[in-house]
Amino acid sequence: GLSTQPIWRKLWDDVMKTRPPNSENITCWRKKFLETFFSNVLHGVLDVSSDWRLNDHHFSPLLHSSPHVSQLTLCNMLQGAVELAAEHNQKVLENLAGSLRILKFQHLLSSDQSIRRSLVLLLHRLIHHGSVSQVSMYSWPVPDTVLLVLILSMSAGFWRSGNALAYHSSPCGLCREEDKAQSQKSAQERAESGRYDEKEWSDGENQKGSPRAPEEAGAEVNGHGADACLNSLLSGPRSPPLRNQACEEASSKVPCDHTSIQGGSSCCVSDQLSCHPVLRKTRRRLKSAVGKKRRCLRRSRGPYADPEDLYDFVFTVAREDNSGLLDKNSATEGENAENWPSSSPGSPCTGHAGCKKRGGSAGIFSLKAAHRFRSVSTLELFSIPLTGETCRTLSNLLSSWVSLENLVLSYNGLGANISCILSGLRALSRHSDCHLRMVRVSDVFSHMPCLELVRCILSAFPQLHTLSVSFDLKNQLEGNRPEGNPSCSEAEIPESCLEQLEIRFPRELLHTAFLLPVLKASRSLQQLSLDSATLPCSQELGLLLEALRECNPNLKKLSFHDVNLAEHQKEVLLLLQDPVLQEITFSFCRLFESSTTEFLSEIINTVKRNSSLKSLKLPGNRLGNHRLVALADIFSEDSSSSLCQLDVSSNCIKPDGLLEFTKKLEGHIQQRGGQIQFTHLRLFQNWLDQDAETAQEALRRLKAVCSVVNDSWDSSQAFADYISVM
């Protein structure tokens, strides 16, 4: 029953000798210490020989702490990956495969082949045969395409099957066990299918009125009834004995570079043929019967058959043309197009603007040639420029990434390539077992109006629960849409499951008429955030509030940030008296820029009468001392307010004003007999450093009433703001 937290806290001070960041938020010092200890030893930051308790040859720091590591960051030249992939750390890697959930890459640099081999080993063990559910990449200004595509494709669960994946020139032990079990199963199936083939062949011989050409007859004799098997293969359900596990995965999970075929799912027939020796010789005739020249990569051919070349399957294409990835028989332009999703509706990458085909496309590969392993459920890319080629690869991966639940693309310079990503998402949405529920897209420039992009994503993916679209600046060439793509504003939005919608407008006009179809389709919406929007007229906010009342009766949280509400006092009061909303945010909305003292009194009286409002956030509205003191009346004896959280950050509040607010609040609490629901006060970026002693007294007394969150901000940075309120 005794807590060991103080011991681990002291160990941190003794061993780490640094102040932990955000120490007030650490709930378990044991986990924090062991996880940081593992990372510091791995990256050479901590020298174990410097501490006598750790300097013992019987003690392995990595092995001891690895079972407690749930999050790991690999940086720079991936030295940590090389160390973990070393033979002497095999047990460490096994521990991580069971404990690690989040794998992060930060500030990566180009790497050579040996480093990539180590990374492949690591990713294969931690993702394909491990428990990693999230892969995040940060700050890579000039990404190495080879390395980036490697991480993306293995995160999606793709890699070459068989012995092309190796542990130091030997096949993966876990894969080897699976292959052994599969081989035994396949042998039994071949024996059964052999008897089945003979029966089909004899039945075909006994049929009357079905003459065959000599070439076909010879092929049937040599193939032991291959025609019957081909027919059963094309018809679908009759041919399970002819498939092994790899073929089943290729046909069911990897829809042939996501080009759908009507009437069945036999798009990877050539893969199935290559998996069954009886049918190999009839490959050419089968293709003519299907009516498509679909030549998939053969597992046993190609320039990358050497098991030593672990990464060559996809990743040397940055230095080669596409022919290095394709079967020699399919190097023509018409057949090479199969590696690009078709232009049919719902298929990824139609080849329009921002998504054009080019020779030597880095990272574009045939998914039919890859074995499908376990994949992650969360992918995050922060500040990593994505070229058109990389976007096409990502689109290919997304289109069948059914395990993906969360996708975050932040500041990737997508531009027109956003249409390529949308194509992949459309293809993904057609999978019945798709799990995607959250999409966040943010960038500097917007390629299309924000509301148009929202409608485009939501019409293709009504299953989403969270959608966030954020742009800093409006693209001056916004009118140049990809050729042949209909405007997303015309797309009809089906009834959606959306619960949270966040839109950051690049100073665009907020027209309620354009947002209305989204609100009508999102009856389950609970959170709405509108940032940096410009209201075109004084009636627009009223129209928006009316639409929200009619379309979204379950809305609980509403946030406005950097939206000028100085002339919308009536609408602000209507929001504050809404009986359903539980959290309202007016952040940097210039609420009191042209208001009178009566407006503040009306706000206070409205909040006092609202028993449903739990959180009121007013950062950046220049409250000053006198308005802050007045807000204390929200908690007076005659108030029926249930307000728990108040945010008055960035409001030019000085120490004497905070102390006066504290005294007034204490008086109201005393009058109510200590019965108050107020629990949290946020005070970031106020002028509390101007009188440290008074500020400390105010904070000490406030913390006896509620939880206070503040910072040591230098108020001299706010001199311009100070002048403006004088």
UniProtKB/TrEMBL annotation:
Keyword annotations from UniProtKB, A to Z = Leucine-rich repeat, Phosphoprotein, Repeat, Ubl conjugation pathway
Q: Where is the composition biased (Basic and acidic residues)?
A: 179-206
Q: Please tell me whether the keyword Phosphoprotein is annotated for this protein.
A: yes
Segments for region (Disordered): 179-221, 325-352
A single Gene Ontology CC annotation of this entry is: cytoplasm
Superkingdom, taxonomy of origin: Eukaryota
Question: Does Coiled coil show up as a keyword for this record?
Answer: no
InterPro entries named among the record's database cross-references: Leu_rpt_41, LRR_dom_sf
> Biased composition, Polar residues: where in the chain?
329-347
Record-given protein name? Leucine-rich repeat-containing protein 41
